[in-house]
Amino acid sequence: MKSHMRKWWKSTPSGLTCLIIVVAMFCYMGSIMGTSHMFNTIMNTAHDLLLNTVFYLMAICVLTGAIGKIFVEFGVVDLLEKLLRPLMRPLFNLPGVAALGAVMTFLSDNPAIITLSRDAHFSSFFKKYQFISLTNFGTAFGMGLIVIIFMIGQGFTIEPFIGLAGAFVGSIISTRLMQYFILKKYPHYAEEDATTGPEEKQQDTLVKPVEHAQSKSLFVRILNSLLDGGRSGVDIGVAIIPGVLIISTFVMILTFGPSTDGTYTGAAYEGTQTLPWLASKLDFVFEALFGFTDSHQVVFPITALGAVGAALGLVPSFLQQGWLDGNAIAVCTAIGMCWSGFLSTHTAMLDSLGYRQLTSKAIISHTIGGLCAAIFAHWCYVLYMLL
């Protein structure tokens, strides 16, 4: 019987499989909430997220983009890169120039590391196994500034920086693990330069320090930096809209329950409470590892797997419900920054580098790194509370 079912499933067209899954999901939610209430809740939740969360995140992206461009224009990025360079070899087993990748992804998003890796001069400093591990290294800092500022905006000051320390530890573990897996499968990559091999698609450009336009007035340089950086922030803000509206909407429907009187009305943020029910079965694990005191808190890391912007969209509502405390903010900052939607970016990033076959290794390494980041942040927070 089981073999017959497996054969039937394999022979089923992908379109039919997709239709079955989608219909089953909506039937499940509709059976609990009522069909009309379910669709009203979906629309109302997405609309509220767009107005009260997405535009807030976009505003943060615009401001941080402007700050990041100012840092680039006036040499702050160069200064940070020089300060961090001595840490690269002992901690990450990467050349010192990799510090530039960490700074750029922290100020923007994961793909910034790919932009750098396509530069022939930048890549020439790396052995092939180090070059591939940039995928894990850069992802661990993606949207870091946005995540920290968002958490501070929610009323927390110390906790986001504890989370930053956790993300830093997670990035070390993820990068080192990825390098181990690469060398185990391809030992010769330890000696091969990153710029050798037919799979590399290097451009004939060089990583150049920022050329400050000394001929321009200080006012013009500041104004251009603010406007250009703000424009890049708008691009990031627009890019996170699908993730927040689609992922967060369905996550919230699977997280929240009925209205206060126990009925479904079609209002925003009503739901089936499925994810907390599932998480409650493993409460003891999450409490021991992360210090989570509420089953709803595990929803943030799950959402961050796909998009950290969508995960941030959950925070205001969770805070209103009283589901998040200081420890949860520290842990969520760490795991959110370290993972930062790596499931949706790792495949594309490795594919662009020409090493798609190592995607599974990168995902395993980064999953472990993110969990370690969360554990480290939890115990740092416990120590902070004891002091």
Please provide a written account of the structure.
The protein has 387 residues and is mostly helical. Helices cover 72% and strands 0% of the residues. The chain contains 20 helices and no strands. The protein has helices at 2-11, 14-33, 35-73, 76-92, 98-107, 112-117, 120-123, 128-132, 134-139, 144-153, 158-185, 218-239, 241-253, 274-280, 283-290, 299-304, 308-320, 326-339, 342-353, 359-386.
Question: Layout of SSEs?
Answer:
Layout: H1 2-11, H2 14-33, H3 35-73, H4 76-92, H5 98-107, H6 112-117, H7 120-123, H8 128-132, H9 134-139, H10 144-153, H11 158-185, H12 218-239, H13 241-253, H14 274-280, H15 283-290, H16 299-304, H17 308-320, H18 326-339, H19 342-353, H20 359-386
Helix pairs in contact: 2-3, 3-10, 3-12, 3-13, 3-17, 4-5, 10-11, 10-18, 11-18, 11-20, 13-17, 18-20, 19-20
Radius of gyration, rounded? 22 Å
Number of helices: 20
Shape: globular
Q: From N to C, what is the helix and strand string?
A: HHHHHHHHHHHHHHHHHHHH
Distance between the termini: 61 Å
Oligomer class: single chain
Biggest sheet: strands, sense, closure? none
Instruction: Please mark out the parts with pLDDT under 50 across 5 or more consecutive residues, or reply none.
Output: 197-212
Structural class: mainly alpha
Number-wise, the strands total 0
Helix content: over 70%
The overall pLDDT average reads 83
Tell me what portion of residues adopts beta-strand conformation: under 5%
